[in-house]
């Protein structure tokens, strides 16, 4: 299988919004979201900030900058990663999704580590408190990437209405990897 991680263009925005329906469905279990009256989840303009588009329901602070990526396997969409720069040399894995049919094949690890390498600096990765599977995934990926040199805690984030998350912090590009 041939995997590509490419910066998402304006044309890719609609592809990621379509994939986001499945991402939001996965998140609904942990966020307690009910299906909307239409029966289907829609991302709407939820990710507009990553492209610098207007219409995002929650505009970012002016110093934040988005870096959207589309993941393809054999030329077909397989997932996405939305990275944001939250300060000079400081990055956040804002959204990360690999389609269920592509999980458990190390694709998520390949994508995450490629992005950690692409953006050297301080990183934070957040998970919902009830999303135990995501916490296990990220702890394993980050522990492997950093040789165990990371922090792991629980924290409220003002930028997200003081919602609490599990968060891992580490530095990329600082630890030699095999």
Question: Any overview of this molecule?
Answer:
With 178 residues, the chain is α+β, with helices and mostly antiparallel strands. The protein has four helices and seven strands. The chain has helices at 13-31, 48-51, 107-118, 132-146, and strands spanning 3-7, 65-73, 76-87, 90-98, 121-128, 151-157, 163-172. A seven-stranded mixed sheet has the order 1-2-3-4-5-7-6, with helices on both faces. It is globular.
Short description:
By secondary structure, the protein is α+β, with helices and mostly antiparallel strands. The chain has 4 helices and 7 strands; from the N terminus they run βααβββαβαββ.
Largest sheet: 7 strands, mixed
- Give, in order, the helices and strands: EHHEEEHEHEE
Structural class of the helix and strand makeup? alpha+beta
First-last Cα distance: 23 Å
Tally of strands: 7
| Approximate shape | globular
Give the tags.
178 residues, alpha+beta, seven-stranded mixed β-sheet, 4 helices, 7 strands, globular
Describe the secondary-structure layout:
Layout: E1 3-7, H1 13-31, H2 48-51, E2 65-73, E3 76-87, E4 90-98, H3 107-118, E5 121-128, H4 132-146, E6 151-157, E7 163-172
Parallel strand pairs: 4-5
Antiparallel strand pairs: 1-2, 2-3, 3-4, 5-7, 6-7
